[in-house]
Automatic annotation (TrEMBL), chains A, B:
Keywords per UniProt: Hydrolase, Signal
Pfam families on file: Beta-lactamase
Organism per entry: Shewanella hanedai
Protein name: Serine hydrolase
Leader peptide range in chain numbering: 1-25
Length: 442, 442
């Protein structure tokens, strides 16, 4: 590297670091360990026989999902919780084609709200990236693993799981097996007296149900804690009287003051309800459905898996772990409107419906600053940008980003210290757009 | 079917049923549901969304591993407990060749202690068989699945896990990385003050260590219960002061009155100690070692997995679940002295050492009626019969049975109501020998 190049790279690194510090400073929060400082292998988590006491990562979740421990945990969910397999079957995987492009690393972009350029490569560590895959015209042009992940490993997909649940539902809708205008109570009588009972399937799919449900983590009585206790696969404590499992919890939810369909509200319980709907319609759990309809048919190279509640019900709202390239196959399947490896897995209308997006006005009410003008439809985030991009997204930076115009798919696994994607979007969304432009020019 | 054939089959069925009833009656125990009556799919375990209360199978283990529930559980261990993957990697599986022989079903044999013949097919249900595979000269001549298992499913291997742990240790011995005459304390200083400290690696491998350790399930203070609590992956109850995990538990074990090396005593803790030895020597846990040395190299079609304790340590004494044909590959690998699909995975001395067997006198002291004249070596059961057969065995009827003379491998997954293989041996060991003879004549 020439000294001038070194200088530029150094300067950019400092700028990137400053930018990241500013994000945290604006929060009043303590600046966390950097990507490199929090590398789980360097920190020695779970290494040794046995690991020393201060290197153990164990139950409960409040410990194993705290930063920086969660940088190990995102690759090891199944070692901490019961899970159900998403089987790829037993045939040979279909390898993906490669056309690696080393130029991507130096693609520059301005982070949102900044006029100081950052390179693609810098953005990876700014975003605590564990795995990054870029597909262009169906071929892998960029692939990188770091921290806990490698190419035979799996990583928590978090709320990207929702988009796969939404995809299954949309397939059933297009196949005529699920009526989106039906009231939920007609499919799940057990939800008749809950908020979901008089909502439509479509309102559940688009998260425009009206629900009294608080995810205020600072409030010890917030619904999220009742939900967490219900969802835990661990045996309930003696004397516990609350709901056990996703399905019992959903029955307790009440409607909020507004009507269904008026506003988008990002609430995971909608995905659990949709998972239940799919199971009632098909007689199969979500993990089995994902296996049958997607994993066994897309040439997957690894099984996926889903966490389950104490009754064995897979977590349709966030339980999936999978390999990076397998999520790449899913992105490619979406980009190709339901086809992969010359096989059609579902009608093209499924993708057309998702890509068309949902109610922008309902979405605007939720006030997502980094996603202005967007919508949420069938549990996919639709950008409504000039490339018609849409995405599966999960906390701590997970994404499958599909750009139909650039014929590009990006999959990112990461373990950003904060759950909020609004903090990772400034250094990721413009990076995706810059790489899309770069690929279109080549 | 002709009426005379029907009559014979019916008569034989009645004889088989009588034989099975007699086994239970001799015990004074209640005759359990038959294979067909206890079919987990028929019984409806875990079916429905959600499953009705009386069809749920959940923690704790005393519930999920009780008969007949355990007939569902043996195929679903990972849905109840945290597990670690035994990865097959991401390459294409190597399919196994077929030469199915429908004549096997009617091969007859006399159960041990009986002069009333039974057919092979009858023995399958007499033994509550979930999966049965017979390989002859490397080709599948017989394959059957029932109850909870199918050819893309996995089943608990129970103590067959020990034989794989023993195989790994024997590989390290032959490779010169593990000294069988070394005292355990020189490898695991943490075990210095335990019974294992002054035992040799070989004594651990052959379970001739002298240990104060009771597996009397009727005694609430028996060591097995302390061990179970230590091994549980669930968070410990408040105020729990006992050992946490396999490694802490092993440190508490004291030596019995006799010397090490004098008598065989089938105690699972030896396998856990051997797992620890392997991890200290290689720096890798048992699941990773099984993946690296066996699963990734034998053309496996499914990943396996192992249960773990609360610290993520895989259960070397019984934690494996795997596919039927993948255990067939392991049997074939043994039969071929370390080669499979034209690849050598380990030196032939490994199998020669195991096959040679251990100390017959030490074994005789344990009084195994159905295995008289046998021995236990490197955690394999060596028959010392005229065919030189040896086996991996697990409670409730699991086996990999290797017959070098007949060039035959049998793998059985089952969920026999009683844990004791002494009850399943009478209708399985002579069946294996009869099929071996049949195959040699064809």
């Amino acid at each position: 590297m020439s000294s001038s190049t070194t200088k530029i790279v150094f300067t950019l690194s400092v700028l990137a670091a400053t930018f990241v510090s500013n994000i945290w400073a604006s929060d009043g929060a303590q600046v966390p360990l950097s990507d490199s400082e929090s590398n789980p292998i360097k920190l020695g988590w779970m290494q040794g026989f046995p690991p020393p006491q201060d290197k153990l990562i164990m139950q409960p979740e409040s410990d194993f999902f705290s930063f920086p421990k969660m940088r190990w945990t995102v690759c090891h969910i199944r070692e901490l919780m019961p899970t159900k397999e998403v089987s790829r079957g037993i045939g040979a995987p279909v390898p993906m084609a490669y056309a690696l492009d080393s130029g991507i690393d130096s693609v520059k972009f301005n982070p949102l709200g900044s006029n100081k350029p950052m390179t693609w490569k810098q953005s990876l560590s700014a975003n605590y990236t564990d795995g990054m895959l870029v597909l262009h015209k169906g071929r892998i042009v960029y692939e990188a693993y770091s921290d806990c992940l490698n190419d035979t490993g799996k990583h928590a997909a978090m709320s990207m799981t929702k988009s796969l649940t939404g995809l299954l539902a949309e397939i059933l809708v297009v196949e005529g097996r699920l009526n989106p205008t039906a009231k939920v109570a007609t499919i799940i009588p057990e939800l008749k007296d809950s908020a979901f009972g008089n909502a439509t399937v479509r309102q559940v799919m688009d998260m425009t149900t009206s629900l009294k449900y608080s995810e205020d983590y600072a409030d010890p009585n917030a619904d999220i804690w009742v939900y967490s206790k219900a969802a835990s696969p661990l045996p309930k404590q003696k004397g516990y009287k609350g709901p056990n499992g996703y399905f019992e919890y959903l029955q307790t939810l009440k409607q909020d003051d507004i009507k269904h369909g008026e506003a988008f509200g990002y609430k995971t319980v909608n995905s659990d309800a949709l998972g239940w709907i799919i199971s009632k319609v098909t007689g199969k759990d979500i993990a089995s459905m994902l296996s049958e309809r997607i994993w066994q048919k897309m040439g997957a190279e690894q099984d996926g898996y889903m966490t389950v509640d104490a009754k064995g019900i897979p977590f349709a709202g966030g339980g999936l772990s999978a390999g990076l390239r397998d999520l790449g196959r899913i992105g490619q399947l979406m980009l190709n409107s339901g086809e992969i490896n010359g096989q059609r897995l579902f009608p093209k209308e499924v993708v057309e419906n998702i890509q068309a997006g949902g109610d922008k006005n309902a979405f605007a009410k939720a006030g997502y600053k980094t996603l202005e003008g967007g919508s949420y439809h069938s549990m996919w985030w639709v950008m409504h940008n000039e490339h018609g991009a849409y995405a599966a997204r999960g906390v701590h930076g997970q994404t499958i980003y599909v750009d139909p115009t650039a014929e590009m798919v990006i999959v990112r696994f990461s373990s950003f210290p904060s759950a909020a994607n609004s903090k990772i979007d400034p250094t990721s969304l413009p990076a995706y757009q810059a790489v899309a432009k770069y690929l279109m020019q080549n």
